[in-house]
Inverse folding.
C-alpha cells in the first residue's frame, strides 16, 4: 500500500489518456454484464434444472398429447419415485399485446407438482386454499407483480386452444396463492391451475396430458430409466421420448440459436480490443518514464520490484475501469430486466458472471502490464540515462 500514491500519481500524469482508457474498459464491462444476463435469460433456467428430474413427451413432438393412463405405468418403473404431469394451456389475459400467452400456463396436479418442484415456495395456508377450490390457481411472484394481482382475485383467461364444453373459450380462476422462488434464477412467472377442473370442463381431449414429469432416486441412472420408460411404450400408438429436464430446456434454448457461442465470440473480440487499448496505454506510460525508472533502480529498486510496480499500475487501471463497469452493469441489468420481464422472465446478472468478470479484470491487468513491465525490468540504468 505504501506505493499506492506513486501508482496514482503515474495514472494522473496523462489524465485524458487515463480517463479514456478507464472509460473504454468501463463500457466493455458494462457490455459484458448485459451479455451475461442475456445468456442467462436465453438459457431458460437450464442451469437450475433438477438433475433428478426427467420429462417424458410424445416421441414425435411435445405438442402431441399422451394418455393419462400412462402415469401409473411410468410410476412403477424401477428408480422412479414420483410421477406427475403438466400441459400447455396457451391463454391470453386481457390485452394480447401484454404477451401473457408467452408465460407458462398449465393444468397440473397441485400436490404432486409442488412436491416435484420444492424450489417453488408456497405458504401452507395458500396451498390448502388451492386444494379446496377446483377453480383455484396459483401464480409466480413476478407475474403477480406484473399484472397487479392479489390473492382472492378472479382472473379471466381467454384460451387460444382449449374450448369449454359450452363452446366458449373464457376460463376464470380464483387466485389462491402466490409462490416465490428459492433461488434468484427460479422461474416465478408460471400460472398453475388444477388439472381435474380443466379436464372435466374442456370440450375435447379428456383423459390426456401434455407431458410427464418424473423424479428419480439416482440421477446417475437417468439414461437407463429413460430407456426403460420408452421401451415400455415402444410400438404403441403413443410412443414416448424421455430425457432429463436440463436437456429438454437446453433444447428449447438452442432453437433460438447458440446464444452462448455468439456471446462468447462478442466478448472475445471486445476483450482482444481491450488488450490492445490498455496495453498501448501501459507501453506509452513506461516509455515516457524511462529516465524515472532508471532513477528508481539507481536508488536501489530491484528489477522485480520495478516490474511489480508496472504490473500493479496496470492492474489498478483495469480494476478502476472493470470494477466500475461491473458495478454500473448491475442496475442497468435490473432496469432492462424489468422492461423485458414478460418476454425474458429470467434476466439478471448471475454471481458466476460477476466472478468471471472479476477474473477477466485481473487477466486484463496482468496481460497488458506484462510486456511493459518486462521492458522496465530489463532496462539498463546507463542506457536509460543516455536517452535523457
Amino acid at each position: 500500500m505504501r506505493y499506492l500514491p506513486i501508482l496514482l500519481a503515474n495514472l494522473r500524469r496523462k489524465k485524458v489518456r487515463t480517463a479514456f482508457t478507464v472509460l473504454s474498459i468501463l463500457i466493455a464491462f458494462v457490455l459484458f454484464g448485459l451479455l451475461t444476463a442475456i445468456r442467462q435469460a436465453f438459457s431458460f433456467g437450464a442451469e437450475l434444472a433438477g438433475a433428478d428430474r426427467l420429462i417424458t413427451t410424445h416421441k414425435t413432438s411435445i405438442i402431441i398429447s399422451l394418455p393419462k393412463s400412462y402415469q401409473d405405468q411410468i410410476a412403477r418403473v424401477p428408480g422412479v419415485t414420483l410421477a406427475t404431469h403438466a400441459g400447455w394451456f396457451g391463454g391470453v389475459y386481457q390485452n394480447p399485446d401484454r404477451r401473457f400467452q408467452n408465460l407458462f400456463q398449465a393444468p397440473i396436479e397441485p400436490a404432486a407438482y409442488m412436491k416435484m418442484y420444492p424450489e417453488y415456495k408456497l405458504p401452507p395456508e395458500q396451498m390448502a386454499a388451492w386444494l379446496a377450490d377446483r377453480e383455484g390457481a396459483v401464480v409466480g411472484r413476478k407475474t403477480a407483480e406484473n399484472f397487479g394481482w392479489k390473492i382472492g382475485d378472479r382472473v379471466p383467461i381467454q384460451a387460444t386452444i382449449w374450448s369449454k364444453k359450452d363452446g366458449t373459450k373464457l376460463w376464470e380462476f380464483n387466485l389462491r396463492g402466490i409462490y416465490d422462488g428459492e433461488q434468484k434464477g427460479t422461474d416465478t412467472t408460471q400460472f398453475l391451475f388444477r388439472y381435474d377442473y380443466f379436464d372435466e370442463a374442456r370440450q375435447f381431449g379428456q383423459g390426456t396430458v401434455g407431458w410427464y414429469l418424473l423424479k428419480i432416486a439416482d440421477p446417475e441412472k437417468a439414461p437407463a430409466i429413460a430407456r426403460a420408460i420408452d421401451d415400455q411404450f415402444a410400438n404403441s400408438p403413443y410412443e414416448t421420448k424421455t430425457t432429463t429436464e436440463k436437456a429438454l430446456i437446453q433444447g428449447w434454448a438452442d432453437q433460438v440459436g447458440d446464444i452462448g457461442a455468439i456471446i462468447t465470440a462478442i466478448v472475445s473480440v471486445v476483450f482482444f480490443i481491450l488488450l490492445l487499448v490498455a496495453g498501448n496505454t501501459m507501453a506509452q506510460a513506461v516509455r515516457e518514464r524511462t529516465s524515472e525508472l532508471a532513477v528508481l533502480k539507481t536508488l536501489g529498486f530491484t528489477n522485480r520490484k520495478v516490474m511489480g510496480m508496472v504490473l500493479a499500475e496496470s492492474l489498478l487501471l483495469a480494476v478502476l475501469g472493470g470494477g466500475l463497469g461491473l458495478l454500473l452493469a448491475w442496475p442497468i441489468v435490473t432496469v432492462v430486466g424489468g422492461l423485458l420481464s414478460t418476454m425474458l422472465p429470467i434476466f439478471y446478472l448471475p454471481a458466476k458472471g460477476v466472478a468471471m468478470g472479476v477474473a477477466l479484470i485481473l487477466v486484463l491487468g496482468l496481460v497488458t502490464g506484462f510486456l511493459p513491465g518486462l521492458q522496465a525490468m530489463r532496462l539498463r540504468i546507463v542506457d536509460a540515462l543516455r536517452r535523457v
Q: What stands out?
A: The longest helix spans residues 303-339.
